[in-house]
Amino acid sequence: MTLRAVKSAEPAAANASQCCILPSCGAAFGLNDRIYTCPRCGGPLEIVCQPAGPSDPEALRKLWAARGASHEPRDASGVWRYRELLPFEESAPFVTLREGNTPLYSAPRSARYCGLEEMRLKHQGCNPTGSFKDTGMSVAVTQAMVLGARTVVCASTGNTAASLAAYAARAGLQPAILLPRGQITAAKLAQSMDYGALICEIDGNFDECMRLIQELGVDPSIYVANSVNPFRIEGQKTVAFELMEQCGWRVPDHVVVPGGNMGNSSAMGKGFGELLALGLIGRLPKLSVVQAEGSAPLARLFAALGAAAGAVESPIPDTLAPVEHPRTLATAIKIGAPVSWIKALRAVRRSGGSILSVSEQEIADAKAMIGRDGIGCEPASATTVAGIKKLVAAGRIRPGETVVAVLTGHVLKDPDYVSQYHRGVLSLDDPEGAAPPERIHGTFRNVPEHVAATKAAILESLERRR
């Protein structure tokens, strides 16, 4: 990927197109064609920028660093600061809530828990609506404005809904959301309500909501903002750019992300690939994806493929066997048929990474350990630390290697989970009702104490903790 010279300070929108990623097709379409999958073969689409002149890596680094100190709205956004790599004209009606700019924390306790010398956590839960979805939604809603859409819709397990509602409200568009009834945390639902979205609660799971979204997407007044939309990926890929800036352009050995609908892993892979093509980095980090055991269709496929799973030259299977009844307390990744699985598998293969799953107990304990580092996150985020612990134990990550785990959501997205874990009452119901609930043991429980209102009693309680 080569972009217009930095001195022009304009994105190369005229040199961009939407292309089918399947080697058997490879069809290209106009940037403003309102499509979400390839009209010829049904394959996934991605935005591709054609060469339009030389690009100087060092000039790009300096330009982006200078914008980081600017108060101009586009520069203050952790997405639009990198607009040379986004497919928009300078005059585009960009929509921003100053997304991005999320912290990269050191996490010494979590590192020791995983058997590492050090580990860093990139916390996307510090975005405006509390999840990583905001970086992609900023771009998707901008494209909705470009196309003249009146309504922006999505299917969601909660985070996408909150993000869509906020950014559509900011743009003056109508947000409409399809949610699986009774499967969304109260905190996430409250966000969508507050931002003025039309909320449609559907009897069924997330995958049923996605089926309906695909039907709605043919209406010319409606724009679909799920991660099947390649413009969502364009926004989310900027997380890779920001991460590398924070790392001083030194590439970590491993980057680990949660796996739900697979837009996050697809975007990270695309972002790192573009940086490599532009000469901004010299190699790819190994990208690994972690799913919950009860919602792990791609991890199962990866394991079934065996040695072929990591072979870049091996053909990608035509289909992914879905999990018909996904089951996990990490509701943000409770998805049985991820729409971006082909892109995610391709990104993992290119980097030499892994796709694996972790148990509910492993997720809960990893989440509690992240909390001990003073960093809260929602359950889905903790799959990364749980997965890193397994990868270290299996020898796939060495103790001295540099590792970044991406946290995707804020701790207050699901406060009931936190409370139930520490009080020892966290459990996962069997959706079929054929088995008793799976109890999650609070390995690192921190239960509130009933203490007498005296100095002596409080000192005694403190002494017991030492």
Q: What distance separates the N and C termini?
A: 56 Å
Helix content: 25-40%
* Top-tier CATH class of the domain at 104-130 and 233-417: Alpha Beta
User: How would a textbook summarize the main sheet?
Assistant: 6 strands, mixed
| Structural class designation | alpha/beta
Strand order of the largest sheet: 4-5-13-10-11-12
Strand runs, count: 15
What integer is the average pLDDT? 92
According to CATH, the fold-level topology of the domain at 104-130 and 233-417 is: Rossmann fold
Quaternary structure classification: single chain
Radius of gyration over alpha carbons? 22 Å
In terms of DSSP E residues, the strand content is: 5-15%
| Count of alpha/pi helices | 16
Using the alpha-carbon principal axes, give the shape. globular
CATH architecture of the domain at 104-130 and 233-417: 3-Layer(aba) Sandwich
Poorly predicted sequence stretches spanning 5 or more consecutive residues: 1-14
How would you characterize the overall build of this protein?
This protein has 466 residues and is an alpha/beta fold. It contains 16 helices and 15 strands. It has helices spanning 57-67, 73-76, 108-114, 133-147, 159-171, 186-194, 206-216, 230-236, 238-246, 263-277, 297-305, 341-351, 360-372, 383-393, 415-423, 455-465, and strands at residues 16-20, 28-29, 45-49, 104-106, 120-123, 151-155, 174-180, 198-202, 222-224, 254-258, 286-292, 355-358, 403-407, 427-428, 438-439. The protein starts with 15 loop residues before the first strand and ends with a helix.
